From TrEMBL:
Transmembrane intervals: 12-32, 44-64, 76-100, 112-133, 293-314
Keyword Ribonucleoprotein: no
InterPro entries cross-referenced by the UniProt entry: Bact_transf, EPS_sugar_tfrase, NAD(P)-bd_dom_sf, Undecaprenyl-P_gluc_Ptfrase
Domain (Bacterial sugar transferase) ranges: 288-467
Subcellular localization, as worded in the UniProt entry: Membrane
Name recorded for this polypeptide: Undecaprenyl-phosphate glucose phosphotransferase
Membrane topology: Multi-pass membrane protein
Keyword Transmembrane helix: yes
E.C. numbers: 2.7.8.31
Record key words, sorted: Membrane, Transferase, Transmembrane, Transmembrane helix
GO molecular function: undecaprenyl-phosphate glucose phosphotransferase activity
Record family assignment: Belongs to the bacterial sugar transferase family.
PANTHER family membership: COLANIC BIOSYNTHESIS UDP-GLUCOSE LIPID CARRIER TRANSFERASE, UNDECAPRENYL-PHOSPHATE N-ACETYLGALACTOSAMINYL 1-PHOSPHATE TRANSFERASE-RELATED
């Protein structure tokens, strides 16, 4: 019944989307040729003749994009992003198809308006459905009863999520756990504060069948068990196969402290859990790269007089090249040559070896010491960004010779290479640079990687203007 109802709702939503797409096509024509000043008037009939093809293309794109997959727990921002992505693909497919349609030239402004209006209508429809379902579920309607097997960190966090977001429509009827009443509440969860009551354990895992029969009407069973409990997971699955409850596996891997970009993919239908991985490639990565290139080009052009002045000062202050090249480690352990304005006499580091710069050291030239204090020696690294070696914002890259020692001393040190290195970063704007605590620097780097967003990059750039150039730990 639940599956049939879900399919009915999906088909209804698909039909409604096609109606809205047709409406957006007509509205875009009206705005383009009736409201705005047209270069020439084009009949609505010519555009309506192409509408059936548009509906076929957009319907196929929407189905293939996964827009109608059941996501009861999907949050509104993710839904808006999914619609925007599907619309962008639909517009791209339509424009590609129009290339082969030679009867007359379609208005590019009409296509832009069509994309904007269709996005607004599709999001408005889903927002209305979202609001209606949220109100209904908060009143106790359309609620799915959930039994959680495993009262560990994963199980308790799952229950807190259901409690924190009642609009998802999940009611936890209890936990199954072999520890019984000895299960304690997990420490305060920063994701769901204020929900620290110990879970209600209603039986051991082996009683899964009897519990399901006794409770009756359990819609979902979430097996939140550790990977080592394969026999228990199998027993839970066998119990669910003889009943109507759906089974979902939530591996309890929260005991592993060094998870990074964990996600699930598949290989020929086999589910694969990624525990340690770089950030998955998506549209945000494209935007970040485009912003890196644009920002670096602008920085190099605007600071070109300053760059020329610094180059002359470095050249006149001591013999040797203007730029200093040093091997650093970046994304996924790949090495590259980082560029800096030379701040030391040639050959000094050959005598001292690979060491961090320290306050009051005598290795730097007078000009070089000034460049280090003001971080102006880092400006040539915008060339590294243009070459793709680095990003404007990210963990600062380190020398491989030093990393060999750090990787064994600092837990999680190598995880900072799961993201492209940067000129400035979250650790730097908080003062963890130069000869400061390496542990705190890694803590801030990993926080940035786990919580990265385009907005966070903008915040770091803004803070760099006030904290990043001149700092007591810059030397």
């Amino acid at each position: 019944m639940l599956l049939e109802r879900s399919l009915l709702l999906q088909r209804g939503l698909f039909a409604a989307d096609l109606v809205l797409i047709a409406l957006a096509w007509v509205l875009a024509w009206t705005v383009r040729f009736e409201v705005l000043t047209p270069p020439e008037w084009v009949s609505l009939g010519a555009y309506l003749g192409f509408l059936p093809f548009v509906l076929v293309v957009w319907g196929g794109v929407f189905l293939l994009s996964g827009l109608y997959q059941t996501r009861r727990a999907q949050r509104l921002p993710l839904m808006v992003f999914a619609v925007a992505r599907a619309v962008a693909l639909g517009v791209a497919a339509s424009v590609a198809a129009l290339f082969f349609f030679r009867e007359f030239s379609f208005s590019r402004l009409h296509m832009l308006l069509f994309g904007a209006i269709s996005s607004a209508l599709l999001v408005a429809l889903r927002t209305a459905i979202y609001a209606a379902l949220r109100q209904a579920r908060e009143r106790g309607h359309n609620v799915r009863r959930v039994l959680i097997v495993g009262a560990g960190k994963a199980g308790q966090r799952l229950a807190r999520a259901f409690q924190h977001y009642p609009w998802m429509g999940f009611e936890v009827v209890g936990f199954l756990d072999d520890r019984g009443d000895a299960v304690d509440a997990e420490p305060a969860d920063p994701f769901y504060p204020g929900q620290e009551a110990a879970p209600r354990v209603i039986g051991p895992v082996r009683d899964i069948g009897a519990v399901l029969d006794r409770l009756g009407g359990v819609d979902m069973v979430y097996a939140a068990l550790p990977l080592s409990a394969a026999d228990k997971i199998e027993a839970v699955a066998e119990a669910c196969t003889t009943r109507t409850a759906h089974l979902c596996l939530v591996p309890d891997i929260l005991g592993l402290d060094l998870l990074l970009n964990s996600r699930v993919s598949d290989v020929d239908g086999l589910p694969v859990i990624h525990l340690l991985d770089e950030a998955p490639f998506d549209v945000r990565q494209i935007v970040k790269r485009a912003a890196d290139v644009a920002f670096s080009l602008a920085a190099l052009v605007l600071t070109s007089p300053l760059l020329a002045l610094i180059a002359a000062a470095v050249k006149l202050s001591s013999p040797g090249p203007v730029l200093y090249r040093q091997t650093r480690m970046g994304l996924n352990g790949q090495t590259f040559e980082i560029l800096k304005f030379r701040s030391m006499p040639v050959g000094v580091e050959a005598q001292s070896g690979a060491v961090w710069s320290r306050r009051g050291e005598a290795r730097a030239t007078p000009v070089g010491a000034f460049l280090r204090r003001t971080s102006l020696d880092e400006l040539p690294q915008f060339l590294n960004v243009l070459r793709g070696d680095m990003s404007v914002v990210g963990p600062r890259p380190e020398r491989p010779a030093l990393i060999e020692g750090f990787r064994h001393q600092i837990p999680g040190y190598m995880l900072r290479h799961k993201m492209n290195a940067g000129i400035t970063g979250w650790a730097q704007v908080h003062g963890w640079r130069g000869d400061t605590s390496l542990e705190k620097r890694i803590e801030f780097d990993l926080f940035y990687i786990r919580n990265w967003s385009l907005g966070m990059d903008v915040k770091i750039l803004f803070l760099t203007l006030f904290r990043g150039f001149v700092h007591e730990n810059a030397h």
